[in-house]
Amino acid sequence: MSSRVTLEEPEQTVEAITSALETFLAEHPMAVVLEDGKVIFDMREAKYSLGTEHGRCALHLWSEDRNVVRRVTGATTRNGALKLSTYRFGQTKPQTLEFVVDSDRRAPSTREATRMKYLRVFERVLLRSFPEWKPDGFRTAMDLEKSFGPAYARGSIVQGRKAWAVIAVYEEETQATVDGILTLGILWLHHCRESGNGRRVYQGLKLVAPQGMAVLTLSRMAWLNEKIAQWELWELDQASEEMEQRDAADHGNLATKLVRAPNQSAAKERFDESAARVMALVPEAMHDIVERRIRNGTELAFLLHGLEFARVRMAYSNNSFNSMQEITFGAGSNEMPMTAENESELRDLLARLFERRSAEGDKRDPLYRMQPERWLESMIRRDVEPLDTRLSQQHVYTQVPAFAAGDRGMLDLLGVTSDGRLAVIELKADEDMHLALQGLDYWVRVRWHHLQNPDQMSGLGEFQRHGYFGGMWLAKEPPRLYLVAPALRVHPATEVVLRYLSPRVEWVLVALGERWRTKVKVVWRKRSGEI
């Protein structure tokens, strides 16, 4: 008689799973979570906590729309995705949660076939829409040297020596890919002109986007320089193969909102007792570098070098309408409630956090690498004058106005100079080819609010009526745009795109020294009209 022995893979520790999650999200903060092939969470908006119950690792994921709890037995990173082996509670069949950078899970061969099919359709549409012009050289091949990816079909339409640069994106691409078409289009037009050797005269650029997906592109196009190129945006209905031109002057309502500035002194007084509980857990030597920020009248955040590690929120107690203050801890997307039972555990957690997230820390550590833009933002907020000595240190606001969609990965600051000019400050710690146009997005919205309905009696504009820039006189001129990044992280595309912006956009490109985590130092500046 023989017995059957079953060998099961041992469960990983909470520490190993936490490290895997921290490392992956430090590299990919905009990841999405898949279950059964469907996106269930966007980590830009979701939160998670990991804990031990009965000696097992429990993962809690939640957002405004969904709440999920799974037991996790292992974590592996492979092919740019983090896979968690999970069990629903009460079930014995294992499942997989995937944290992925790209929610498009089609095989590369399927993507390529779809794009080639679209290219054939697109050339047919061009022949019908512009019968006097001949399509030439269209392709989707990747060209990393010039930053062109396979998601965009690009080529020219020609008529003798006259030509237009053309770039298109098909409807199965993500909205983020569609939103990137103008940056890639400007680079394509620039490349066509540079490589033409005078054989062709490129009048401008035609962009072709999927129907209903070009709102952001349309708002950006209104601020391009019409003296150096013509700009056209077309929307393609792939089902009917019909194209319709969009007018850049008709870009609809801006997806932005301006909320009232919170009463700082009242909020600090309201949260005083809870703040003291949090700070009692922080190593005393670190008290001076912890930043306490009033998010709004109902939330106080605690940050270390821009990384939020605790927050106090106004909430309602169970089964009543009595308000109470809730304290939670966790870095990045990680969050857990603070209780009397776990205070010592949280004290140890904070000690590790403060040891690892420092300017002299290990650059490979996920807590060091996590949210570099927020670290840079915290440095600029503490001392904004290195960017421009005219900037006021007293009036620096984060993401005001807010993007209504809440889907921005970039960090934005709004300030003012001594001459009353509003200053839009766009920050990027890593290389990003879309820096210029993402900064333009914020500039457009700040300008729009600044010009809204000035009060004829008081002379106050919308920002001051909402509690910002108290005691300041604001000039009527549009804001200045500051684009800020470490010198070695300024993407080569940035200066090319800036050449094509309208002269109505006054900008300054500011390059910082690589040791900005220790001290912000400007190594060079370039201004509109200089490149």
Task: Break the fold down into its secondary structure elements and pairings.
Layout: H1 14-27, E1 32-35, E2 38-42, E3 47-53, E4 56-62, E5 67-78, E6 81-87, E7 95-100, H2 108-129, E8 134-139, E9 152-159, E10 162-169, H3 175-179, H4 181-195, E11 201-210, H5 215-221, E12 230-237, E13 242-246, E14 256-257, H6 264-270, H7 272-281, E15 290-296, E16 299-304, E17 307-316, E18 323-329, E19 336-337, H8 343-356, H9 366-369, H10 372-382, E20 397-398, E21 402-403, E22 411-416, E23 422-427, H11 435-450, H12 462-465, E24 480-486, H13 492-499, E25 507-512, E26 522-527
Look at the helices and sheets and give the structural class. alpha+beta
**DSSP strand tally:** 26
Major pleated sheet: 7 strands, antiparallel
- What is the mean predicted local confidence, pLDDT? 88
The share of residues in extended strands comes to 25-35%
Task: Give a verbal description of the structure.
The structure is a single chain. The protein is an alpha+beta fold and 531 residues long. Helix content is 26%, strand content 31%. The strands form five sheets. It has a seven-stranded antiparallel beta sheet. A six-stranded mixed beta sheet has the order 8-9-10-11-12-13, with helices on both faces. Strand 12 (230-237) and strand 13 (242-246) form a beta hairpin. The radius of gyration is 26 Å and the shape is globular.
Question: Short description, anyone?
Answer:
The chain is α+β, with helices and mostly antiparallel strands. It has 13 helices and 26 strands.
